[in-house]
Amino acid sequence: PAMAALTGAALLLASLLALAAITSGNTEGDILYSQRQAWKDPNNVLQSWDPTLVNPCTWYHVTCNNVNSVIRVDLGNAGLSGALVPGLGRMVNLQYLELFGNNISGPIPATLGNLTRLVSLDLYDNRLTGAIPASLGNIETLRFLELQENMLSGTVPREVLSLVLVGDLTELNVAKNSLAGTVKSSKPRVATVIQDTLKTT
């Protein structure tokens, strides 16, 4: 009886984990599909993003881990235009968000600061406007923050700059925006990138 109870408990746990993975996949699929709807996609690169599939791990430009959670979205130079949806901030397992070289417009959603496993956020060469969200400073795992060649304004938030000083951030590029201010860093590689690209006030 004790062995049967243990087996039953193990099966229940396995079922719950599988259900959690499926639920995660469905939630992430819903978010990505809402992003697809918010974008114009003249080249049909998002044609495989079908909400009727069990999870988005079978979609092109999406990479999942071994429990079917989305960890990477690769849509650089895809001809996309439109805004980023705030729901992207609920994709908590995301590590790489590569959206460079498109015509994405509007603000960077502050909710992206909830992506606390993110390693790389590549939004360069788009048409993004508004301020850089201070919430991005919450992402202590962030190593690459590429925001150059947009229409961002204001200053680089001190919360983001703190990642340069005490976090893992080794590449911060904000070139060719409408940013103001000066930045100093003890990391030469980062300092060169930011000081060469910010206007001095």
From TrEMBL:
<dbReference type="Pfam" id="PF08263">
    <property type="entry name" value="LRRNT_2"/>
</dbReference>
<dbReference type="InterPro" id="IPR001611">
    <property type="entry name" value="Leu-rich_rpt"/>
</dbReference>
<dbReference type="InterPro" id="IPR032675">
    <property type="entry name" value="LRR_dom_sf"/>
</dbReference>
<dbReference type="Pfam" id="PF00560">
    <property type="entry name" value="LRR_1"/>
</dbReference>
<feature type="domain" description="Leucine-rich repeat-containing N-terminal plant-type">
    <location>
        <begin position="26"/>
        <end position="65"/>
    </location>
</feature>
<keyword id="KW-0732">Signal</keyword>
<feature type="signal peptide">
    <location>
        <begin position="1"/>
        <end position="25"/>
    </location>
</feature>
<keyword id="KW-0433">Leucine-rich repeat</keyword>
<dbReference type="InterPro" id="IPR013210">
    <property type="entry name" value="LRR_N_plant-typ"/>
</dbReference>
<keyword id="KW-0677">Repeat</keyword>
<protein>
    <recommendedName>
        <fullName>Leucine-rich repeat-containing N-terminal plant-type domain-containing protein</fullName>
    </recommendedName>
</protein>
